[in-house]
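Supplementary Note 3. Input sequence used for the single-chain structure prediction.
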Amino acid sequence: MKGHEASIGPGVPSFPLARGIMTALLAFSLFPVIWVALTSVKSETAIFSIPPKILVWPDFSSYVKFLGFGRESALRFLWSSALVSVMTTLATLLLASPAAYAFSRYHFRREKELLFLMLATRLLPPVTAVVPLYLAFRYFGLLDTWFILILVYTALNIPFATWLMKAFFDGIPRELEEAAAMDGCGAVRTLARVTFPLASSGIAATSIFVFLLAWNEFMFAFMFTNVKARTMPVRLAETMGEMQIFWQDMASLSTLIMLPALAVGFFMQRYLIRALTAGAVK
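The predicted structure, written as discrete structure tokens, is reproduced below.
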């Protein structure tokens, strides 16, 4: 038994070694997050102390400032980011799900070329679209609105979401849909009762990725908004002044940006793990 615990097969690391490697990778991944969170509750003196101080008396002045209702409040930026990210996720799923299902179940001329063309839209640097989009939105008077951010983010994420969800629809046996049709279910009812529930893990995984991409996007939010629709990444960039960098404010805003993303990942992790391991065991 001990020999089995020491090694589970040729070329496979032993359990203690695997735990050590995973622990080291986890520590390496979490160290920047923990350090930023600690920096957010340090005073300016403690931030620049040498050697660095880890255990300090917490200073929550930045959080009070950003989560309050004063002139420096970041609540409206949080609201903008949350609204844009949630609406982008819903719009992307609403448009990409039927497209992914169509590519998975129906075969037509130029199918592969159309799929590649959708993916090719992500091969170009997004910065190449900034100038024409800015001129178009200015002409229609849509600058500094949530609508243009939702529109741009949805357009950027539809190809990625379509490709990702197509793989999950491909993994659902057609026989299940045929059996539902034989039992009297129509096409829409079959999708609602059979196909989409079976693809729920893939839809959840796609929604996580789309939400995080929209939540963390900076360039379009910086170029297309000014006051009303500014998001948290843009507010974070404003902590860099002309003469100095406000490190505590930057760390506090970074922590506020990370918390919703961590919360979404934590509560949706079972769907994400199920989606990533789909098809691993036959």
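The chain has two domains: 2-59, 65-276. The CA atoms of residues 177 and 194 lie 7 Å apart.
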